[in-house]
What we know:
Elements: E1 3-4, E2 14-19, H1 23-41, E3 48-53, H2 62-65, H3 77-89, E4 94-96, E5 111-114, H4 119-130, E6 138-144, E7 148-154, H5 172-175, H6 193-199, H7 204-222, E8 224-225, E9 227-233, E10 238-243
Parallel strand pairs: 2-3, 2-5, 3-4, 5-6
Antiparallel strand pairs: 1-8, 6-7, 7-9, 9-10
Amino acid sequence: MKHRINPKLLERRIRVLVAGCGGNGSAVVSGLPYLHQALLAFGHPGGLHVTLVDPDVVSETNCVRQPFCEPEIGLPKAMVLMQRMNLFWRFDWNGLQARVADLSRHANFDIVFGCVDTRKARREIHSLVTDRSSRVLYWLDLGNNASSGQFMLGQPINAANSRKASGRLPTVAEIYQETIQPKLDDDSPSCSSIEALNRQEPFINQVLAFNALGLLAQLLRHGAVENRGGFCNLATGSVVPIAV
């Protein structure tokens, strides 16, 4: 069984929101320019336009496993990273110091990458993409623990996606409802570099991000996918696909 792409994504520039600029979000954003260029090379009419949102500023521990450096400590993460991307690639992409809850419910996005590390933040994404006026076509959610994680593509129920649509991909919040229950969050911060590395092994974010980007690339390039996500495990070196 295959899921076939919403044809609207092949007709114009694709508006992408990346929610979260931590390990997963920064890795996703770093890979999106290559997808943009590939789409243009294959004849897509506009490629991607990306907006990155995150309310946080760069901290000392961010400089251990995220693409930030000491002179950037205290600056808004999303704005720092997107300014760097725009200077290098000559893009017009956006970086906002904001929470997803701060975004207008009328914001026009086609694809939302969920790269957040709390259930509270994922609930904000769920609220955005399922708002009655929302026209988000796909929500691609990433989540991980120390050495394993998952990425999952879904079509939120909103003005663009009907609950009864044939072949609609359910979202991560529909399949795993506990992922949007804030009361289950562990809000204790990583206060040192060692603690940050213990919480998330080096490269788990890159593994998840590039598998998620690969899935999206397949959908946009070939118009269909047989898998809607996968479970990654660094300890075993395995990626277990989630079939459509």
